[in-house]
Amino acid sequence: MIAQSSKSSLIHTSPIALDPSKVRALIALRKFGAMSRTDLADRMGYSRSTITTISQDLIDLGIVEEIGDAVSNGGRRPRVLNFRANYGYIVGIDLGATSLDLVFADFNGIILERASTILDVRQGAALTLNIIRDLIIDMLNNQNLPPTCLVAIGLGVPGPVDFHAGLLIAPPIMPGWDAYPIRAFFRESFPNAVVTVDNDVNVMALGELRAGAGIEHENFIFVKVGTGIGCGIVCRGEIYRGADGCAGDIGHICADKNGPVCHCGNVGCLEAIAAGPPIARRAIEAVHAGRSPILSKYYQMTDSRLTSVEVSRAAAEGDAIANEIIRDSGRAIGEVLAGLVNFFNPTMILIGGGVSGIGHLFLSSIRGGILQRSLPLSTRNLRIDTTSMKQDAGVIGALMLALEHVFMVKT
Amino acid sequence: MIAQSSKSSLIHTSPIALDPSKVRALIALRKFGAMSRTDLADRMGYSRSTITTISQDLIDLGIVEEIGDAVSNGGRRPRVLNFRANYGYIVGIDLGATSLDLVFADFNGIILERASTILDVRQGAALTLNIIRDLIIDMLNNQNLPPTCLVAIGLGVPGPVDFHAGLLIAPPIMPGWDAYPIRAFFRESFPNAVVTVDNDVNVMALGELRAGAGIEHENFIFVKVGTGIGCGIVCRGEIYRGADGCAGDIGHICADKNGPVCHCGNVGCLEAIAAGPPIARRAIEAVHAGRSPILSKYYQMTDSRLTSVEVSRAAAEGDAIANEIIRDSGRAIGEVLAGLVNFFNPTMILIGGGVSGIGHLFLSSIRGGILQRSLPLSTRNLRIDTTSMKQDAGVIGALMLALEHVFMVKT
Of chain A's two ends, which shows fewer C-beta atoms within 10 Å, N or C? Predict the structure, then answer.
């Protein structure tokens, strides 16, 4: 082993920024794994000589290394380019309203440790971030690594984010987080870490794009159905955030002009009709109207606190009302998505979030709504499915976010 | 003058394909005009040395030339890169259902001649394309240029297009054009011309992007309101066509679940409520109901053939019913666009097409519909306006289409 392979040999003094062609090369290696210079040149549409220059620079910087032998076409056996696993270490964090998932990985994206905990983001930023920092320090200690070895942190949060500034902007369910300096907080403990913050749905879409069903898709939508409804958009193989960073905010698209009033003040918003809370509300109404013995049973069991979980159980037990609620919710989502399919013409729609597992009827109703109202040409090759990564889309996406921005973000 | 400057000196033997970095450099020169190597490197995020190599290759190929002096920063006065005007000649064509606009330009995009004519695309592909070919040959003769000098043709058509194949696909208003080999037709007369065909709305969006209000916008939507309703999408500074080339087909998004039945079979499609034909239909209904003396006057004047033009005139004369029709149409379009603003978060929406000039009330109703139903953050920086290029967006867009694909399309 050469000296550079020892865990403590690389002392990063500050994050480094690379020019766009090198970043593109790294993203290609990240997406498709180790490959030869020729394959990399083909993937990127660059000349062989340009790739030779780029890869030599990356080797000199200690970011990539040559390993093994690629399949030869008869000539000299080419060697493949790969990330140097111990160039630095990375943390990905999926922060939910009431939970936290965290993974600790090497620079190749290999997960070395993971942790999950229950917390309440409404406790505020300082308290929550302290918990995260302590978890990271524990993991660094377990791996016998100094804090300076951490080169990137990716964080997905359940609120609107100014991506370039790394700040939450007036998050409705995260009091005390508005414009909190998350980057500065982490840089105090981890001076070499580039900190990237993004909305949870974008992060989930990125997880699917790099490590899930999205690997072979250039243009797709990841829809999260939970307390609210939002989507992450992948356009030409990249997360699309829009002009003000709020692209994908589909929860307030009108699903029914005669629908209920939404908390935003408008009438008939999709999330006022089809998200977790209206599903629970309709179930409670059915209980009060004496229309569902099964839902009434759960109503008593949960001390009058029905959620989509109990609606799902009641549906599985054959409750007609529960199935009707699920079908209506899926249908409303499908009808709104149909419009987005006509507009965006993606190759795939993935459904995730807490409500997405409510039952098979949910997905089939979404499909029905999309197929009825979309143009035949735009659904010819359209895959509509639930997330391929279950709860992991967020935390793996956060890891990918960190890995991709370690050389891009100016901090 | 050196020999290369004479009009007939360049005899192209076949279209040439360039690698992506050179094409990107040419697109940047096309978009921002002549500039120094340093400015070009900055625009593209490439190193100075990469740009030096790229520009030398382009000069060697005779595509660009060095001209004039850029503003110096004190050192040697840098020279700027520019297209060689007589590298080749270009035609842009905007084909409508009943009209044709054509421009003939040098390689710098300077228009040397233009022509417009009335025709009927329902006469079929061969007849229409013959007219276009004869117009081009006349123009070449006028300029004393051989047919081999034509290096690119860009064509916008009012129907769905398989962009990569350059074919119309089952166009509803263009019988006889389905899969007609347009490229092969033109290559018979103009053997060196790269022929690029696209949907008219995409072409209009490209016109605005390169030569209109879109120059400073990365993400915007161009909406055409005419017999149908569709939109061209610009995403990250490029036309976005979607997975099957049908992105932007917003005419069949549901605008009102209780609305009229559309020719597509669904209920309440936007174009069944707000396009030219329903505007005319509502006007005729008002005449039959005796609700509008002014519309009745135009009904008699036009021999019972009211269109959006007469509705526009009646509105200008203060007719309440005509104004109501226009307001309802604009409102319905605005409400659908509100959903797309929430999803796509663009910086601009431009409204064009035959109905777009129907009156100020139309644009203000569209604005009202968008602003009421979009999220505040996504409309903070949103410009909503009518096309900046009037009828020219299509034909200038077709010219830009030709200019941008001359080195990209494999034919």
Answer: N
Please report the pLDDT score of residue A125 as a whole number: 96
Residues of B in contact with A253 (CB under 8 A): 338-339, 342-343, 373
* pLDDT tens digits, B99-148: 999 999 999 899 999 999 999 999 999 999 999 999 999 999 999 999 99
Contacting residues for A63 by C-beta, under 8 A, at least 6 apart: A26, A83, A84, A87, A107, A407
Condensed to tens digits (0 to 9), the pLDDT of residues A215-256 reads: 999 999 999 999 899 999 999 999 999 998 999 999 999 999
In order of their start, the domains of chain A are: 3-84 (1.10.10.10), 88-207+393-405 (3.30.420.40), 213-388 (3.30.420.40)
Pairing of strands A348-352, B35-36: unpaired
B185 touching chain A per CB within 8 A: no
CB B145 within 8 A of CB B107: no
Cβ neighbours of B52 in A, within 8 Å: none
Whether B167 has its CB under 8 Å from any CB of chain A: the answer is no
Q: How confident is the model at residue B6 (pLDDT cuts 50, 70, 90)?
A: very low
C-alpha closest to that of A104 among A133, A129, A124: A133
The interface pTM score, or ipTM, of the predicted complex is 0.90
Contact in structure between A326 and A358 (CB atoms under 8 Å): yes
DSSP symbols for A4-68: GGSTTS----S-----HHHHHHHHHHHHH-SEEHHHHHHHHT--HHHHHHHHHHHHHTTSEEEES
Using CB atoms, which residue from B235, B248, B378 is nearest to A246? B378
Q: Is A52 on the interface with B (CB under 8 A)?
A: no
pLDDT in tens, B220-255: 999 999 989 999 999 999 999 999 899 999 999 999
Residue A68 sits at the chain B interface (C-beta within 8 Å): no
Residue A408 near chain B (CB below 8 Å): no
